[in-house]
Amino acid sequence: MLSDFTLTELRNFAVEKGLPTFRGNQIFDAIYNGKSLNEITNIPKNILEKIEGDYPKAHIAKKLESKDGTKKYIIEFADGEIVESVLMKYKYGNTICVSTQVGCRMGCKFCASGLHGLKRNLTSGEILSQVLLVNRDLGGGLKERQITNIVLMGSGEPLDNYDNVVKFLRLITSADGLNISERNISLSTCGLVPEIYKLADEGLNITLTISLHAPNDKLRQKTMPIANRYSIDEILKACKNYIDKTKRRVAIEYTLIKGVNDSKASASELISLLKGMLCHVNIIPLNYVKERGLKGTTRAEAYQFVELLEKGGLSATVRRTMGEDIAGACGQLRNEILAGAK
Ligand code: SAH
């Protein structure tokens, strides 16, 4: 697909098709402005016919807006598969949360994304399309960029789709494209250790976020199958290597599940585990997913948990919840749509 291509690759593509190189620039402009093929007016029809098969078909199939300004998009691809992207407005800019796979095969017990397993990986162009379409929906384009921050925290495990995700990161940070700063990008993983080492060597200084959700392996294994493959010890070693190589602070996600990982003892264990590491802990009360049954803590309990962590010397905050009225948590809206379609 042409959205997988860099500007140079598109210019070469034009030449291969027997076209002048500037046609490559025009196609690049159209893609990065989020245009569909039939909205392109500066390229003759006979040329558009030549590229039609390769031109991205991703489009916004549905959009929901929350009271707090959060927007949730359902993006549909050429084969009819759908993913969710979420736009969150902060004082400092607009953050988009993108999906990296259709479904997920990690099987975390609290997460809605994996309820139907993994359907397929997204290509780099399909991950990019989510940003470009939402950027356009906000009135932006290649020049007047509306999106300032990106989090790879939608459906899917980014490091389970490594090559496409890294190519996407190169496209989105490229000076020819939206030129998003590496510092404004976070990648969240449940902890695929070999890929964390690999990522540290890519020269991409993005923020690494680890979905930890438990202070020891035994507890982690109860909710996260990946914990049977890699220990917390191995994950934290990989994080330390990432910090050494990138000089970036790692973020730790800890979702509070009532009666599972929210005790004082869990807080103490977490403190001993993370003390001295260059990291920040994000505490998130679990979003209730009815198919999963697990319950979250109250926000007040989350603040108490943070207080314990801070007293123990960790840097921690409660993550703001946004878009709860529009099925905000990972994979929730796609599931509602899939269930409704049955
Ligand atoms: N697979 C990656 C990317 C998903 S990011 C990862 O595991 O990090 C989404 C984040 O939301 C992860 O930290 C995930 O564990 C968390 N999450 C999933 N379901 C949730 C729920 N119901 N409530 C709160 N957080 C949830």
Structural overview:
- The chain has helices at 7-16, 21-32, 45-51, 124-137, 162-173, 193-200, 217-223, 232-246, 264-274, 299-311, 332-341, and strands spanning 59-65, 71-76, 82-90, 93-97, 101-103, 118-121, 147-152, 185-189, 207-211, 250-256, 279-285, 316-318.
- It is α/β, with parallel strands linked by helices and 342 residues long.
- It folds into two domains: 1-56, DNA polymerase, domain 1; 57-326, TIM Barrel (Alpha-Beta Barrel), CATH 3.20.20.
- Strands 1-2-3-4-7-8-9-10-11-12 form a ten-stranded mixed β-sheet. A two-stranded antiparallel ribbon has the order 5-6.
- The longest helix has 15 residues, at 232-246.
- The protein is globular.
- The site of S-adenosyl-L-homocysteine has 18 residues, from strand 8 and strand 10.
- S-adenosyl-L-homocysteine is lined by residues 106, 108, 110-111, 153, 157, 188-190, 211, 253, 255, 284, 286-287, 289, 329-330.
The biggest beta sheet, please? Answer: 10 strands, mixed
What is the CATH C-level name of the largest domain? Alpha Beta
Distance between the termini: 30 Å
Q: What ligand molecules are bound, each kind once? A: S-adenosyl-L-homocysteine
In N-to-C order, the SSE pattern is: HHHEEEEEEHEHEHEHHEHEHEH
State the shape: globular
- Please tell me the total number of domains: 2
Q: Assign the CATH topology of the largest domain.
A: TIM Barrel
The tally of strands reads 12
Nearest-angstrom radius of gyration?
21 Å
Mean pLDDT metric: 93
Count up the helices. 11
Helix share of residues? Answer: 25-40%
